[in-house]
Design goal:
Elements: E1 4-9, H1 13-29, E2 32-39, H2 58-82, E3 87-93, H3 97-107, E4 112-116, H4 130-138, E5 143-146
Parallel strand pairs: 1-2, 1-4, 2-3, 4-5
Length: 154
């Protein structure tokens, strides 16, 4: 039914558990997995005239975010490999994670977006997480929203 599934992660424990469930779902479907981490765009310092020496350059920032993304997506890639699935990962940059998720799903020809109901914004929210809610509002693709029954580690 689904040939290519986009699985999103923000690196949080909840997101990692959701991603593993996404790989299990992809295995049941025999689908390819594309893992995605969306990092915020580089922010230039407010005081543009003088850049403090400890402030990272845009290249340094992007390199660090790519390393973080690879770390966050490593478990997804390992799980997909263990399951015998074709898999790839990508780190994208945007201040609007939801729109970037929708764009990547379109550009990469994904059949389904698999994401958690909550991420870094935490369990305190009563409704769906804001990124998930925005993805649902912006895409015409099917979105499978995974919700954990209890928080990881409990």
């Amino acid at each position: 039914m689904y040939q290519k599934i986009l699985i999103t992660t923000d690196g949080s424990a909840v997101s990692q558990h959701t991603a593993c469930a996404g790989v299990q779902f992809a295995q049941q479907m025999g689908a390819e997995v594309l893992a995605l981490f969306v990092a915020p765009d580089y922010q230039y310092p407010v005081y543009v005239e003088i850049v403090p020496p400890s402030y990272p350059s845009e290249e340094e920032y992007q390199a660090q975010m790519r390393r973080m993304g690879e770390e966050y997506m490593g478990k997804i890639m390992h799980s997909a490999e263990q399951a015998g699935l074709k898999h790839s990962c990508m780190t994208a940059f945007s201040d609007s994670a939801a729109l970037k998720i929708v764009d990547v799903a379109e550009q990469q020809h994904c059949d389904l977006i698999f994401m958690g109901s909550h991420g870094r914004s935490g369990w305190g929210q009563l409704l769906l997480g804001s990124v998930t809610n925005k993805v649902l509002a912006q895409t015409t693709k099917p979105v499978l929203v995974h919700r954990l029954i209890r928080e990881p580690g409990t």
